[in-house]
């Protein structure tokens, strides 16, 4: 299954999906299923997704600093403390060498720790103003002359209680809703946007300024989609031959370049006939395709001769979710890559020839 990065990782974990994407491409090329030029799509597909992941992560990190800033805490305090310690470290080492018998107290690491803790304690002193009203030393009265604690308390309360200003931790659109650009010709003219042109949705996520007021980057766009560049939605299917239940994601493998999945047998036959007549080629490489038929439960007792039909397997749409998706997106068949991203969608037989002719990969 696809691996997704965490925004808390500031884009670093995006390397997991990078490896997933690149491993599939390397496998294609090494096994002869795709030409060497197929590797060039790696940057086109992954760079926009990773760039946004980094932007979202940094933006979320900055939002996390807001409460600390309201409290009067600043990263500069820590930076200053470290700067002082680093400046004094050579002198501390000299002292330790001159007075080796003084014990652990003169150990440079111990002295550095004491200095660091003392500096941080001084930097946090003003936080005493948020303590109990009852105190032998009225810290708040003293510090309130320099800092408006009542205003800060109210602002913190607003952040905690108002979900629109809270710190978002879930990013479904970034985590699982990203799409790949599968049409290089449209990349430069539409970078950073999402637009729909016919059956094609340009395959990258929107920039962070599209985030909703709730702080959720999803804004309702993360949903199962049968569109080019999207990950094929998960639905449960039952294989007619073995009665085993699998996910639609498991229909794709590294044994072929593409998997054509359809619920219309006529469309599959038309696709098989078209590819026999005009095989998919790329730089003299024949791109292999296997065919999967998905049928409703009403046909689960039917007998299908897969060899005669030139298809690999027949699966039962157990819950009807696949049909619902096809109806929603007006799709009869999808051509899927081994990394589970959709390469091409077909609504009917009439647009089969033209769309295959326009296929770019």
Provide the descriptors you would attach to this structure in a database record.
361 residues, alpha+beta, Glutaredoxin, 7-stranded mixed beta sheet, two-stranded antiparallel ribbon, 11 strands, 39% helix
Tell me what you see in this structure.
One of its GO terms (cellular component) is mitochondrion. GO terms for molecular function: FAD binding; oxidoreductase activity, acting on paired donors, with incorporation or reduction of molecular oxygen, NAD(P)H as one donor, and incorporation of one atom of oxygen. Residues 8-55 form the FAD-binding domain. Keywords: FAD, Flavoprotein. This is FAD-binding domain-containing protein. This protein has 361 residues and is an alpha+beta fold. It has a domain at 236-357: Glutaredoxin (3-Layer(aba) Sandwich). It has eleven helices and eleven strands. It has helices at residues 14-30, 41-70, 75-98, 108-123, 139-143, 149-161, 172-175, 265-277, 306-309, 321-329, 352-357; strands spanning 196-197, 200-201, 236-239, 245-247, 258-262, 281-282, 285-286, 289-296, 313-317, 333-336, 342-346. It has a seven-stranded mixed beta sheet. The longest helix is centred in the first third of the chain and has 30 residues, at 41-70. The protein is elongated.
Produce a short descriptive summary:
The chain is α+β, with helices and mostly antiparallel strands and 361 residues long.
């Amino acid at each position: 299954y696809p691996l997704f990065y965490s925004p808390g990782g500031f884009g670093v974990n995006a390397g997991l999906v990078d490896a997933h994407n690149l491993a599939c491409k390397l496998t294609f090329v090494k096994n002869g299923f795709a030409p060497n030029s197929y590797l060039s799509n790696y940057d086109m597909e992954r760079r926009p997704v990773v760039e946004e992941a980094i932007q979202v992560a940094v933006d979320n990190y900055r939002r996390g600093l807001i409460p600390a800033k309201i409290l009067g805490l600043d990263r500069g305090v820590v930076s200053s403390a470290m700067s002082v310690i680093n400046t004094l470290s050579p002198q501390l080492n000299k002292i330790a060498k001159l007075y080796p018998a003084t014990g652990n107290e003169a150990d440079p690491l111990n002295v550095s720790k004491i200095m660091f803790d003392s500096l941080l304690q001084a930097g946090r002193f003003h936080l005493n103003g948020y303590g109990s009203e009852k105190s032998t030393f009225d810290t708040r009265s003293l510090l309130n002359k320099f800092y408006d604690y009542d205003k800060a308390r109210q602002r913190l309360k607003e952040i905690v209680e108002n979900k629109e200003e809270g710190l978002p931790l879930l990013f479904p659109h970034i985590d699982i809703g990203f799409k790949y650009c599968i049409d290089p010709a449209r990349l430069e003219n539409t970078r950073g946007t999402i637009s729909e042109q016919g059956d094609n949705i340009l395959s990258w996520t929107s920039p962070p300024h599209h985030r909703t007021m709730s702080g959720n980057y999803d804004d309702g766009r993360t949903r199962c989609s049968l569109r080019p560049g999207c990950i094929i939605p998960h639905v449960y299917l039952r294989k007619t031959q073995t009665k085993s239940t699998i996910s639609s994601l498991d229909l794709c493998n590294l044994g072929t370049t593409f998997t054509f999945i359809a619920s219309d047998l006529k469309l599959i036959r038309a696709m098989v006939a078209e590819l026999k007549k005009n095989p998919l080629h790329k730089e003299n490489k024949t791109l292999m395709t296997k065919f999967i038929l998905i049928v409703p439960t009403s046909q689960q007792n039917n007998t299908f001769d897969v060899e005669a039909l030139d298809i690999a397997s027949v699966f039962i749409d157990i819950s009807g979710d696949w049909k619902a998706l096809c109806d929603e997106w007006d799709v009869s068949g999808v051509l899927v890559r081994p990394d589970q991203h959709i390469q091409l969608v077909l609504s009917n037989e009439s647009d089969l020839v033209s769309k295959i002719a326009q296929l770019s990969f």
